[in-house]
Known about the structure:
Blueprint: E1 25-33, H1 37-45, H2 50-53, E2 57-64, E3 74-79, E4 82-84, E5 87-92, E6 96-102, E7 108-118, E8 121-131, H3 135-162
Amino acid sequence: MTRHAQIPDSRITWPSGQSPSSSIVFAQNTVDINAHAEKIWALLIDCARWPSWYKHCGNISILRGGPMLSASAKFRFKTIGFFFEPEVVTFDPFRELTWSAKGPAGTSGAHAWYIEPSQGGCRVITEEAQKGILLRFLGGRTTKTLLTSHGEWLRALKALAEKK
C-alpha cells in the first residue's frame, strides 16, 4: 500500500459540486495489484459480494440497475456505521467508477475508483471527497476513518484479485 501526499488525481471525473477542491474532507489511497483491469473491475462492480471480502460494509441492495453496478445504477449499503444510497455518476469500464451520495446531517460526498494499467498489473486509486457543515467539526476524524477503511478495502481487493 502506498502512502503519499493527498493530491487529488486529475484523471478522476468528479460530479458537479463534489470535487476535492470544494470539499472539507478528502482521502486518497493507492495500491498496486498484480491482476488485469478486467478482474479488478469485475470485483468492484459486484457490490452485492463486497461484504464477503470487505468488512466495513453490509446490507447492500441494488435500487436501480443491477445485478452489478452499471451506468446510472443506484444502490444502498451500510458502511462505517451509516446507510448511504449512492448513484453511479461515472462508469468507464476497466478504468473509472464514481458514485455520489447524501450522507448524515446534511453531508454529501463522492467516491471514485481509478484503475491504471501498469507493468505487472494495475495501480488502483480510490478517492473520496465530502462536504457539509458537520464535517467542519468532524473532518479530521472522518478523514482518518476513510483512510483506514479504504486502505483495508484496497488490501482486501488486492488479495482477492491476486488469488489464483
